[in-house]
Design goal:
This protein is about 30% helix and about 20% strand. It has about 400 residues and is of the alpha/beta class. The strands form 4 sheets. Strands 1, 2, 3, 4, 5, 6, 7, 8 and 9 form a 9-stranded mixed sheet that branches.
């Protein structure tokens, strides 16, 4: 028997059909039980709540005033929850390619806005692996320039590129946080690199993602991957757990964290466990490495750790770092793990030399770094530093010394 092979079009057709049906009537098989903040659900119309298909809750990672993008927003439940968390100063955009789900969300939007007293949500039609192309704008182009032959098809491709360039669905560096709830696994394998690259593109420097999705503990067999119906059921396209995190790293993110991991599997198929996870990751490690004589001391509890750029930090050692890494590892999700060592005399940014992030084989006796990147104290204090001071008066606290 020939193996079933699912193409991109097979997958998108199956997903679109199933979720169109799900917009009309509830499909319990698409749900993974999640405990949401019930206070955030009170303003949302019942028909939206009944037709929500998620597997996690990424909303706790949203802050007041955030500009939020929800990928695969469906009926709008997550967007309406987040609208309350960001407040009237924030903005929320939901992107979905399914017209029926968009109609459900857009129909509920004025109801939610009236109940909240402000309207900070909008819903756009697009594919999450191509956040540059506005499908509503493309529809207008097709009405005036329909595809009737190969030449008009080639012309259409040119028009698509123009729309991405001149009227992008989501512009570069425009979002504080990207959310998604059980949608990334619905994207076919050939489109996944562009999916993660698009998420990275639209985020501002310092932005973050909070993605809930279904993962598996083993590779999905080829015959399951080839079944479009199982794609729409969040089985065939499930990411293997470790590779899900690797996908964020390959796109340029740092600080990937399994913020939540379902202990018991949602489903088990042929002994393969499928469960919900929520991953948080950050954008912002890009940029030049500059030498400003800074160091970080990893405080434990592990003997040593390695960051996403390959820097190894041994517990208790002063590790030489560039200015970018120095500040990056003092922010979330690393805050509190490192003690910062500033130079006695600060080096202005415009006078800072390039920093070689590879460990330099310099002897500590020379005031440099050894083969493991340890920065000698004289690098930060200065070679001629020769101060002698009295004991700090408050070293033992308000009760005095022992």
């Amino acid at each position: 028997m020939a193996a079933i092979v699912a193409t991109n079009l097979d997958v998108e057709k199956a997903v679109n059909s199933r979720y169109s049906n799900g917009a009309q009537r509830r499909e319990a098989s698409l749900c993974c039980p999640v405990d949401y903040d019930r206070a955030l659900l009170e303003v949302i119309p019942h028909e939206v709540l009944q037709r929500d298909y998620g597997c996690g809750d990424p909303t706790p990672y949203v802050r007041p005033g955030d500009v939020v993008l929800d990928l695969g927003s469906g009926g709008g439940k997550l967007c309406f929850m987040v609208a309350q968390l960001v407040g009237s100063a924030g903005r929320v955009t939901g992107v979905d390619a399914n017209p029926d789900m968009l109609a459900l969300a857009r129909g509920a939007q004025p109801v939610v806005a009236e109940r909240l007293g402000y309207d900070n949500v909008r819903f756009l039609r697009g594919r999450i692996q191509d956040l540059g192309l506005d499908l509503d704008l493309l529809d207008r182009e097709l009405k005036t320039h329909p595809v009737i032959d190969a030449s008009s098809w080639i012309d259409l491709r040119s028009r698509e590129e123009r729309l991405r360039r001149e009227s992008p669905l989501v512009p570069d560096d425009s979002v504080d946080i990207v959310l998604s709830n059980c949608v990334l696994n619905l994207v076919h394998y050939p489109d996944r690199t562009s999916l993660f690259n698009e998420i990275f593109r639209v985020l501002r420097r310092g932005g973050r993602v909070a993605i809930s999705d279904i993962v598996c503990d083993e590779d999905v067999p080829e015959d399951l991957k080839g079944d479009p119906k199982l794609w729409s059921g969040c089985i065939s396209g499930a990411f293997r757990e470790d590779r899900f995190l690797e996908a964020f790293e390959q796109a340029g993110f740092h600080g990937m964290t399994l913020a939540k991991r379902q202990e018991q599997p949602w489903q088990t198929v042929r002994g393969i466990e499928f469960r919900s996870v929520t991953v948080v990751a950050y954008k912002g490690k890009q940029g030049p490495c500059l030498e400003r004589k800074q160091a970080l001391v990893y405080q434990g509890p592990f003997r040593k750790v390695e960051d996403d750029d390959g820097h190894v930090f041994h517990r208790g050692r002063r590790t030489a770092v560039c200015d970018k890494t120095f500040h990056l590892l003092q922010r979330e999700p690393y805050a509190g793990q490192f003690a910062a060592v500033e130079p006695r005399e600060a080096i202005p940014l415009d006078q800072a030399a390039p920093f070689n992030c590879r460990p330099l084989a310099l002897s500590p006796a020379c005031g440099g770094r050894d083969g493991e990147g340890v920065r000698h104290p004289r690098e930060t204090k200065g070679q001629d530093y020769n101060a002698t001071t009295e004991a700090a008066a408050d070293c033992c606290g308000s009760e005095g010394c022992c």
